Q: What sequence folds into this?
């Protein structure tokens, strides 16, 4: 199948009435939940994950991707209107976006954010379509030793690039790896760490874990913070940016798109780092003579980071689609969803299920288009949603989580696990630990163990197999360099500056 034929298959798949409705519903639901203060893309995708289990795999992935885009847009809306970032990537949007809102230019800020996100998403989708198939073909050359080293690199990157302290991130990663060993050993058939509980023979439920860590934990966090925030913006003003506004913002959008596209494939925090890097770049290029100053409502301070954030989020699909390696928590959730639909993520997907692969790529552009033409006119609705007291919302959110996790296996234990992991996620937040390494360790741990065993079986127990192949050596070398970089004092200072806005 040629490249054009593949793209046409994707367009046909994405434009089917059923998938169009799923994509539209996904972006709308994602925006509705994501616009709530404190509910970012990860929590939104985790909460809405059970809704997709009744769909076929292609529609399920298109719907989850749409939820992801919508939740990201909702995060920028709260950042501009109430100075609360929906996710970490929207932190820098608060700096200038909220100032613009206070100056009566909330509509312009949201319009620039939506336009930049659409342009960045279009470019990033093109990059995915261009690079995904060659990378998938290249991945077929990987041996079990190469795959083990690649996954190890992904886990090391998730730790090094995490926002939390490296030591705490290592601890969370270890917890995720241990949780991934619960269940039946696929090699020997022995039960591991099940505590004689029959329901744990197949392992800990992915939905219970993810909804607990990100859904229930977010509720507990928001309740402690007593979410009494309400928008003080009485009028959002003109929504569509003027031509001078677009002319001033377009260069920043271009630079942000480039940065986000490059950094988005990094494991752990590429999409997050891209928004901070874009803001720092725009501030440096503008210098001290920027009018208005950065942090006081500069349009480029919204256009660049929002474009970078969206481009990074899109290109994070590349390692997930081509290698089966999640680069962030949302990609881990999507891999979990694929596994629950009996689809093994990785390079074989493009051959075994081309409609899913190319349909998802085509739907990415459609999802961003829906966000642009649908959500800007609905800004007034989101403003009203933001005025709802959180005490009215959290019981409904908790009920939705409970019903969702029970509907997967109809097992009461899953509800208990969800609440337990919600408490774990809340305690982790209190201890300034990030849950992303845990969820990545949980997803990658079994695959890491499988490839380790396969490599050792093929080499008859010879550990030098991991340094005999050039690819494996390259991955291990990069992982070692990342580890050694954490010992450099300047790295700690740069890392602190990168995340100081949080």
A:
């Amino acid at each position: 199948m040629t490249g054009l034929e593949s793209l046409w298959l994707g367009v046909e798949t994405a434009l089917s009435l059923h998938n169009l409705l799923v994509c539209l519903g996904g972006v709308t639901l994602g925006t509705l939940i994501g616009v709530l203060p404190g509910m970012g893309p990860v929590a939104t995708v985790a909460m809405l994950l059970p809704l997709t289990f009744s769909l076929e795999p292609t529609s399920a992935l298109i719907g989850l991707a749409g939820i992801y885009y919508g939740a990201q847009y909702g995060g920028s809306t709260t950042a501009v209107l109430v100075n609360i970032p929906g996710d970490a990537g929207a932190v820098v949007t608060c700096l200038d976006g909220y100032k613009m809102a206070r100056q009566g230019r909330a509509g312009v800020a949201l319009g620039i954010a939506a336009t930049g996100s659409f342009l960045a998403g279009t470019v990033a989708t093109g990059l995915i379509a261009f690079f995904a198939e060659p990378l998938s073909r290249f991945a077929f050359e990987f041996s079990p030793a190469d795959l083990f080293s690649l996954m190890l690199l992904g886990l090391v990157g998730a730790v090094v690039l995490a926002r939390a302290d490296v030591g705490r991130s290592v601890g969370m990663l270890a917890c995720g790896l241990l949780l991934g060993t619960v269940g039946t050993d696929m090699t020997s058939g022995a039960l591991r760490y099940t505590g004689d509980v029959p329901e744990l023979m197949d392992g800990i439920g992915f939905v219970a874990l993810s909804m607990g860590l990100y859904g229930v934990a977010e509720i507990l966090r928001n309740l402690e913070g007593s979410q009494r925030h309400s928008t003080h913006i009485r009028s959002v003003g003109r929504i569509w940016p003027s031509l001078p506004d677009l002319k001033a913002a377009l260069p920043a959008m271009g630079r942000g798109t480039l940065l986000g596209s490059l950094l988005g494939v990094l494991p752990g925090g590429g999409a997050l780092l891209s928004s901070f890097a874009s803001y720092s770049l725009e501030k440096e290029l503008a210098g001290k003579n920027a009018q208005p100053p950065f942090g006081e409502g500069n349009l480029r301070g919204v256009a660049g980071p929002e474009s970078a954030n969206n481009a990074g989020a899109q290109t994070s699909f590349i390692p997930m689609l081509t290698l089966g390696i999640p680069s962030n928590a949302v990609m881990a959730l999507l891999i979990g969803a694929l596994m629950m639909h009996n689809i093994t993520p990785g390079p074989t997907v493009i051959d075994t299920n081309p409609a899913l692969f190319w349909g998802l790529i085509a739907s990415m552009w459609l999802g961003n288009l829906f966000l642009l033409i649908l959500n800007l006119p609905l800004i007034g609705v989101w403003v009203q949603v933001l005025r709802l007291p959180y005490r009215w919302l959290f019981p409904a959110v908790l009920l939705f989580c409970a019903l969702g996790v029970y509907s997967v296996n109809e097992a009461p234990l899953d509800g208990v696990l969800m609440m337990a992991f919600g408490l774990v996620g809340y305690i982790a937040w209190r201890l300034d630990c990030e849950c992303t390494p845990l969820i990545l360790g949980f997803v990658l741990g079994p695959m890491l163990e499988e490839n380790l065993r396969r490599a050792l079986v093929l080499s008859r127990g010879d550990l030098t197999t991991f340094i005999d192949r050039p690819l494996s050596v390259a991955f291990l070398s990069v992982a070692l360099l990342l580890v050694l970089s954490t010992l450099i004092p300047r790295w700690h200072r740069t890392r602190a500056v990168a995340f100081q806005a949080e």
